[in-house]
């Protein structure tokens, strides 16, 4: 096992962001993981030039690899493919983060620090003291926090931010929870991963972060994705 952290970055239609997010994340990880790290953009065959730009980054930096996928079938399957690719190559820690700067790359160091300090899964949390969101209207705040509250109550968990996608796993967590069997495709995927980790007895720590609206491009969130989460959460609890 290499012992290296790998950052998984789904990059569907992120041509405006991919160069900058990889550079910023690489700077942080070079300091937080001086023994080595990898960044894995997961390209879903978008109509823009994201995959081509990611390949250019990989040609320039030995710590960048690119995973090309033939189809776009949701953020969940993109992460699953990225996790499998990294685990098969010896990743000891697996980070996930949005590619649009809604998550601050500087916080990667804090997530790694939490896992190095004994957490099995570190979550970047908007809804613990010190965390928050900016650049959102009232409706979006209510939908987001309400979704996390709904999932927490239905699943009987104490984790405050269940729908966030900024995380760091020890490899043992993903192996133990059989992540390949996760079927959620949208943001219910994030709820399911955390729920499985808690059910398996792993230590979950929430690290406060401030979530910001994306710099460029268009949000992938839709009412269909939100509806999937509403429908799947009770199934997780009672299956």
Could you explain how this protein is built, in words?
- With 239 residues, this protein is of the alpha/beta class.
- Helices cover 42% and strands 16% of the residues.
- It is built from eight helices and nine strands.
- It has helices at 18-32, 50-60, 75-88, 108-116, 138-155, 171-176, 188-199, 223-238, and strands at 5-10, 38-43, 67-68, 93-96, 121-125, 132-134, 167-170, 204-208, 210-212.
- The chain has a seven-stranded mixed sheet, with helices on both faces. The protein has a two-stranded parallel sheet with strand order 6-9.
- The radius of gyration is 17 Å and the shape is globular.
- It starts with a strand and ends with a helix.
Regions with little confidence, pLDDT below 50 for 5+ residues: none
Number of helices: 8
Mean pLDDT: 88
Biggest sheet character: 7 strands, mixed
Structural class: alpha/beta
Q: Kindly state the percentage of residues in helix.
A: 40-55%
Query: What is the approximate shape?
Result: globular
Number of strands: 9
How many angstroms separate the termini? Answer: 35 Å
Helix and strand sequence: EHEHEHEHEEHEHHEEH
The radius of gyration over CA amounts to 17 Å
Residues in β-strands, percent: 15-25%
- Strands across the major sheet, in which order? 3-2-1-4-7-5-8
């Amino acid at each position: 096992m290499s012992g290296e952290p790998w950052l998984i970055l789904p990059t569907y239609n992120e041509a405006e962001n991919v160069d900058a997010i990889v550079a910023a994340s690489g700077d942080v990880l070079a300091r937080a993981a001086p023994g080595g790290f990898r960044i894995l953009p997961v390209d879903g065959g978008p109509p823009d030039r994201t995959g081509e730009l990611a390949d250019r980054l990989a040609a320039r930096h030995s710590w960048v690899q690119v995973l090309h996928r033939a189809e776009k079938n949701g953020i969940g399957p993109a992460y699953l493919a990225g996790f499998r690719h990294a685990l098969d190559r010896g990743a000891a820690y697996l980070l996930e983060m949005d590619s649009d700067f809604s998550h601050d790359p500087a916080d990667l160091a804090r997530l790694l620090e939490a896992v190095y300090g004994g957490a099995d899964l570190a979550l970047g949390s908007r809804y613990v003291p010190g965390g928050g969101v900016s650049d959102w209207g009232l409706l979006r705040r209510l939908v987001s926090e309400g979704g996390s509250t709904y999932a927490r109550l239905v699943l009987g968990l104490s984790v405050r931010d269940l729908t966030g996608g900024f995380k760091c796993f020890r490899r043992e967590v993903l192996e133990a929870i059989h992540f390949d069997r996760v079927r959620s495709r949208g943001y219910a995927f994030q709820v399911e991963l955390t729920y499985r980790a808690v059910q398996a007895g792993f230590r979950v720590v929430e690290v406060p972060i401030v979530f910001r609206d994306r710099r460029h491009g268009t949000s992938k969130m839709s009412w269909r994705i939100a509806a999937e989460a509403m429908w799947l959460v009770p199934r997780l609890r009672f299956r």
